[in-house]
Design brief:
Number of helices: 15
Strand content: 15-25%
Largest sheet: 8 strands, mixed
Number of domains: 2
Radius of gyration: 28 Å
Distance between the termini: 49 Å
Strand order of the largest sheet: 1-5-6-11-10-9-7-8
Low-confidence stretches: none
Bound molecules: histidyl-adenosine monophosphate
Length: 435
């Protein structure tokens, strides 16, 4: 028997959670005025090397790289930002008149990581990217988007971690300070940290091996090396978050594991313990040089990514109500003619938005009643020989425990009224005719 690959999984009953999250994403994106963008699952490997950064764990250790039959070096996307930025440049979206240009995306990403709870090799990432404005208020609005989504999903146990790396000047001061700090400890640091000391000392702070050692705990803080301008930007972010009633915690250890960040960086962590070590639900920040470094015009940008599986694990531990699959009407049939009549009636009801299920196995009445409960049907419409003859239906309302015989042509109106408490106001629609 074939088995799924390590770090992947099949979505079966959890699909209800995915649908609930996807619905919330669409409505919150509408509220914050983000348009959906869909980009390919694979891109030229070079895009991620240049975009995410050679020294990051993601590019150095975790990408799925392969050569296609034409000999091209390709990579399954490990995250969404690089592809969206490529699309932004290639499609000249920067020329659009609306500014900022705000996009959201949702889909599989792939990282060759050690699988554990909340960490997969294929996972779904939802993200947003806002281009064209260097503004602390926009950074705060992007964070507010993630918080609004979590609140819409009734998530309560989370906290925003916030830090600032500053722009190019602040970061070069900070790199210098990090080098001075780590220099006397190099012999105690791992091989990767020694390499990163030379190539990009900021990445030393991502090390999972040395993270708990003393030099790490006493490492210099990025906010102590910000230029006045960058400090002002960060102050604006904090003031805007406070004004919106969003609590945050300044986290000096937060540098994020991707190279493109400048200024604001943030993570939103689940505090319910449902996720264990993989408690970061959302990670993001500002990246003012990525568009230019990938060949586009100089364009400031900010965004975040959310791991959908992690979000769903957190939702399952909380009190988010997820409906069981159900249908409005189960059409219970007795005899061959009734089965055809049921299909005709189901067609009519479905045209008007009423969902239906029926029997395809010629089962007994008792078995069909059982099926109606398995399908969580609110109504059971019984159709026998007599009903076919008289063009009627015997309708049982399982919720109100009532029963009535109705003409087929009155069936739609009766069900619609019971479901919505309102009268349907269209008069001559197909779904009412029953012909
Ligand atoms: P990231 O922190 O690498 O950032 O990933 C964002 C989120 O994706 C994480 O917080 C986590 O919830 C989820 N995630 C990452 N790896 C896995 C995995 N192996 N299994 C399950 N979930 C995972 C980015 O990817 C940036 N592109 C975010 C961004 C957008 N920054 C600016 N714009």
């Amino acid at each position: 028997m074939y088995q799924k690959m390590k770090g992947t999984y099949d979505i079966t009953t959890e699909i209800q959670y995915f649908h609930a999250v996807e619905k919330a994403i669409q409505s919150v994106s509408r509220l914050f005025n983000y348009q959906e963008i869909r980009t390919p699952h694979f891109e030229a490997s070079e895009l991620f090397h240049r975009g995410v950064g050679e020294d990051t764990d993601i590019v150095g250790k975790e990408t799925y790289d392969f050569k296609d039959r034409g000999g091209r070096s390709l990579t399954l996307r490990p995250e969404g930002t690089a592809g969206v930025v490529r699309a932004y440049i290639e499609n000249k979206l920067y020329a659009e008149k609306r500014v900022p240009q705000k996009y959201y995306y949702y889909g599989s990403s792939f990282r060759y990581e050690r699988p554990q709870k909340g960490r997969f090799r294929e996972f779904r990432q939802f993200g947003v990217e806002a281009f064209g404005a260097k503004s602390g208020e926009l950074d705060a609005e992007v964070i507010a988007y993630a918080v609004t989504l979590f609140r819409a999903l009734k998530l309560k146990n989370f906290i925003v971690h916030l830090n600032s790396l500053g722009g190019k000047d602040s970061m070069s001061r900070y790199r210098k300070a990090l080098k001075e700090h780590f220099k006397p400890h190099l012999d105690k640091l791992c091989e990767d940290c020694n390499r990163r000391y030379e190539t990009n000392p900021l990445r030393i702070l991502d090390c999972k091996i040395d993270a708990d050692t003393k030099p790490f705990k006493k490492a210099p803080k990025s906010i102590d090396h910000l230029t006045d301008e960058d400090r002002k930007h960060f102050d604006t972010v904090k003031a805007a978050l406070t004004a919106m009633g969003i609590d945050y915690k300044i986290d000096h250890s937060l540098v994020r594991g991707l190279d493109y960040y400048t200024d604001t960086v943030f993570e939103i962590k689940d505090t319910s313990a449902a996720l264990g070590a993989q408690d970061v639900l959302c990670g993001g920040g500002r990246y003012d040089h990525l568009v230019e470094s990938l060949g586009g015009p100089s364009t400031p940008a900010v965004g975040f990514g959310i791991g959908i599986e992690r979000l769903i694990i957190a939702l399952q531990a909380g009190d988010f109500p997820v409906p069981e699959p159900s249908v409005h009407v189960y059409l219970l049939t007795l005899g061959e003619e009734a089965r055809i009549e049921a299909l005709k009636i189901a067609n009519m009801l479905r045209l008007g938005g009423i969902s239906c299920e029926t029997d395809f196995l010629n089962r007994s009445m008792k078995a069909q009643f059982k099926q109606s409960t398995h399908h969580n049907a609110r109504f059971v419409a019984i159709i026998g020989e007599e009903e076919v003859q008289n063009q009627t239906v015997n309708l049982k309302d399982q919720k109100e425990r009532s029963e009535e015989t109705l003409a087929v042509q009155d069936l739609y109106n009766a069900i619609y009224e019971k479901l919505t408490g309102k009268q349907d106001d269209c008069n001559d629609c197909e779904h009412k005719k029953g012909e």
